[in-house]
Task: inverse folding
């Protein structure tokens, strides 16, 4: 490669030769530029339709914005949402309340695996419908184990009543010792005073280190431009929660903070037909979660990884061998009313999305 | 200052001068680079959905190549240590080619991380909010850039001194050489800690990852340098002593033995314990629930490494052709073992037990080939410029034309194909 046998040095004398070499150099330079232009051609769209504004480019980190700067950012985002979805959003920056630390408790004896929480979450939080992003994954587990590798993520319809299985919904556990926060190189994700780990979608650089670090597979990445139909957009939005995301950033469950920080319950809890989900302020001794954590035999997933989750599971000691009969009755009724739709598996899930993307891409290499 | 700018300008001009084979090689590399640029532009416009990555397997080909290349960069010390600590003579004037390769490898590694970002337009956030020392990724940013600067300084200083016909001042480079030795080990250790520090990924959460990375790097890196020296020997008049190859052969053989031993230790722990932690290793070596995309790859890698190891220990590899074949085999073997065999299985099954397989897409492969071609382009230019300078054919007091003309005649007396 480093051959030094030079036959045509650039300083060869003679007018004819130098003209020829000039033409040759010129022709290769033009050819090179043309090839470079062709290589850059996919960027053409960017010039006619720039996807980010100067204001957004210069926007500061969430925790470093002054109130005025935050207001300017909110105004910019509102305008963008209105332009894109023709909806005037009720967008604000909802801060954590003093003296509050949120916790979730889930009664596995009452979960019937109907996946209503999954869909309610998608609707509430403006998650992309195509490609499909969901924060909650319900795993159908065989009785007698908590080994997640034995679970089934893609069950068609829940088999209830079925003494051989139970259903395990998993979402962000809002750990007190979150590995995802630790690994983020740009502090785009952090734990709030009320225990919720949030993401500044305008700060994330999309390296996906947090996704690799999470032991609960709670984080989702926008591999493509997220899409939500205009008529399905939820205009009740907060900066740190469900405002529309962009391509190339992380997102995840935030315990519905635009609701819960204003005293309401998360959408996944409200929709739950059997009341398996309990949520509240664990610092308040009169709250339901306080009572459950104090009196029930609660446990957390993967305690050995030391993440200290704020998401607790428990089985109801009254029904050691089957689901709660009351929950089963509700399940039966839903099955009759909803027919095929009962417990419908998510449509184009992340797995299918991958193969769809590769089809679009013209086959795998 | 003026002389220095003239030096850079002459290096630039020299990189466009060569014979037909040189032009052909550079043309092919440039074509791959431009194809890679085109594919990356597509990725920027559409998002990382142009890759085979998913939420389940969220790192793939890019991070695999990044890991491999950090190791290749670190491997320059396997030339530096014999020369500067054990005062090896045959390798003395060859060290610089290892250091130059470190420069090219670091550039490639950094490009691989950059193309893996979902939002490259926010790269400056890294400068504004740097989560140091908590995030291992920030450590990696520091050590990689530091290593790049160290090597640029050492090579640049030595080459420029040769250009000025000056004796290099020891104070100006020897301390940096010794810092670079420790630094080289640190870059690959930090890269290993990036993975082994994650408690949620049992496949990576092992103390043997960093030693394994170093061992595999210290065999693949010098193996690549053996191939480089072969090319140098074949196409230039630069003197490469046959003994240099034999020294490197020993280095490669020992490092590869340690690597195979560590791989075996890892496999024993996973399979004899047979706990739930071993699911990823099962997937990698045997397949899991009927999914076995990586099985042929890892066994292929093990086979290549084992054959290379046997060849390296037999006297037959004193023959340069056999030695080259062994080097090619082990580079490919380690690239598979450390790239796809180390990064992908940690994601299969997911922490929630789901099994989703990963294969790179065409677009992703084109970007990858583009970066590799770009790195080789950089390395070719660096070597192409360095050789005449070190041979004293391109110096400040000679005209540029004299340098290239002299290069032509010097080569006629060179040890062609020796």
Result:
């Amino acid at each position: 490669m480093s051959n030094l046998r030079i036959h045509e040095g650039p300083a060869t004398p003679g007018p004819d030769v130098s003209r020829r070499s000039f033409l040759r150099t010129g022709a290769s330079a033009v050819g090179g530029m043309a090839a470079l232009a062709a290589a850059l051609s996919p960027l053409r769209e960017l010039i006619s339709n720039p996807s980010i504004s100067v204001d957004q480019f210069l926007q500061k980190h969430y925790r470093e914005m002054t109130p005025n700067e935050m207001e300017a950012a909110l105004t910019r985002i509102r305008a963008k949402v209105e332009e894109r979805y023709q909806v005037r959003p009720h967008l604000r920056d909802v801060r954590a309340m003093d003296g509050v630390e949120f916790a979730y408790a889930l009664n596995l004896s009452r979960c019937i695996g109907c996946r209503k929480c999954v869909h309610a979450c998608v609707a509430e939080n403006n998650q992309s419908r195509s490609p499909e992003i969901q924060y909650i994954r319900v795993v159908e587990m065989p009785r007698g184990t908590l080994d997640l590798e034995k679970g089934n993520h893609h069950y068609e319809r829940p088999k209830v009543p079925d003494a051989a299985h139970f259903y395990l919904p998993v979402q962000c556990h809002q750990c007190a010792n979150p590995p995802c926060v630790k690994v983020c190189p740009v502090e785009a994700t952090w734990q709030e005073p009320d225990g919720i780990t949030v993401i500044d979608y305008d700060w994330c650089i999309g390296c996906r280190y947090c996704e690799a670090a999470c032991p609960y597979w709670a984080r989702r990445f926008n591999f493509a431009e997220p899409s939500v139909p205009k008529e399905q957009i939820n205009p009740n939005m907060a900066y740190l929660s469900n405002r529309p995301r962009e391509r190339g950033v992380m997102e995840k469950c935030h315990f519905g903070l635009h609701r819960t920080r204003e005293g309401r319950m998360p959408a996944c809890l409200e929709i739950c037909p059997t009341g398996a989900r309990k949520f509240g302020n664990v610092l308040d001794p009169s709250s339901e979660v306080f009572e459950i954590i104090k009196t029930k035999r609660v446990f957390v997933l993967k305690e050995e990884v030391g993440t200290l989750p704020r998401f607790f599971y428990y089985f109801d000691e009254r029904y050691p061998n089957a689901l709660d009969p009351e929950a089963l009755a509700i399940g039966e009724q839903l099955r009759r009313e909803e027919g095929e739709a009962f417990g419908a598996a998510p449509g184009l899930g992340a797995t299918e999305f991958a193969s769809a993307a590769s089809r679009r891409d013209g086959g795998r290499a | 200052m003026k002389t220095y700018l003239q030096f850079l300008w002459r290096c630039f001009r020299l990189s466009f001068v060569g014979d037909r084979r040189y032009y052909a090689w550079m043309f092919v590399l440039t074509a791959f680079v431009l194809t890679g640029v085109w594919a990356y532009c597509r990725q920027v416009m559409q998002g990382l959905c142009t890759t085979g990555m998913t939420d389940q397997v969220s790192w793939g080909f890019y991070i695999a190549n990044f890991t491999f290349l950090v190791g290749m960069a670190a491997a320059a010390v396997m030339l530096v240590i014999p020369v500067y600590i054990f005062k090896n003579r045959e390798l003395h004037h060859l060290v610089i080619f290892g250091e130059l390769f470190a420069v090219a490898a670091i550039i490639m590694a950094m490009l691989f991380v950059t193309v893996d970002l979902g939002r490259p337009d926010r790269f400056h956030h890294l400068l504004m909010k740097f989560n140091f020392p908590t995030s291992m990724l920030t450590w990696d940013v520091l050590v990689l850039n530091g290593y790049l600067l160290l090597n640029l300084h050492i090579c640049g200083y030595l080459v420029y001194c040769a250009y000025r016909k000056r004796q290099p001042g020891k104070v100006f480079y020897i301390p940096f050489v010794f810092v670079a030795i420790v630094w080289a080990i640190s870059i690959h250790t930090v890269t290993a800690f990036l993975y082994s520090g994650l408690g949620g990924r049992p496949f990576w959460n092992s103390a043997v990852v960093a030693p394994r990375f170093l061992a595999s790097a210290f065999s693949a890196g010098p193996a690549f340098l053996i191939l480089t020296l072969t090319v140098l020997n074949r196409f230039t008049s630069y003197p490469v002593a046959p003994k240099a190859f034999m020294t490197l052969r020993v280095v490669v053989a020992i490092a590869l033995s340690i690597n195979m031993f560590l791989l075996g230790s890892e496999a024993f722990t996973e399979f004899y314990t047979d706990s739930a932690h071993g699911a990823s290793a099962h997937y990698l070596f045997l397949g899991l629930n009927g999914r076995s995309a990586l099985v042929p790859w890892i066994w292929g890698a093990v086979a290549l490494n084992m054959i290379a190891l046997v060849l390296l220990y037999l006297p037959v590899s004193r023959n340069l052709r056999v030695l080259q074949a062994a080097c090619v085999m082990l580079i490919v073997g380690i690239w598979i073992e450390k790239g796809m065999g180390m990064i992908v299985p940690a994601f299969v099954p997911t922490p929630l037990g789901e099994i989703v397989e990963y294969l790179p897409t065409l677009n992703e492969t084109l970007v990858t080939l583009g970066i590799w071609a770009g790195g080789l382009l950089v390395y070719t230019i660096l070597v192409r410029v360095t050789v005449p300078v070190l041979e004293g054919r391109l110096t400040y007091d000679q005209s540029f034309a004299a340098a290239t003309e002299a290069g032509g005649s010097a080569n006629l007396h060179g040890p062609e194909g020796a």
Remarks:
- Chain B touches chain A through 96 residues (CB under 8 Å).
- Confidence is low (pLDDT under 50) at residues 406-418 of chain B.
- The domain at 20-406 of chain B is CATH 1.20.1630.10 (Formate dehydrogenase/DMSO reductase fold).
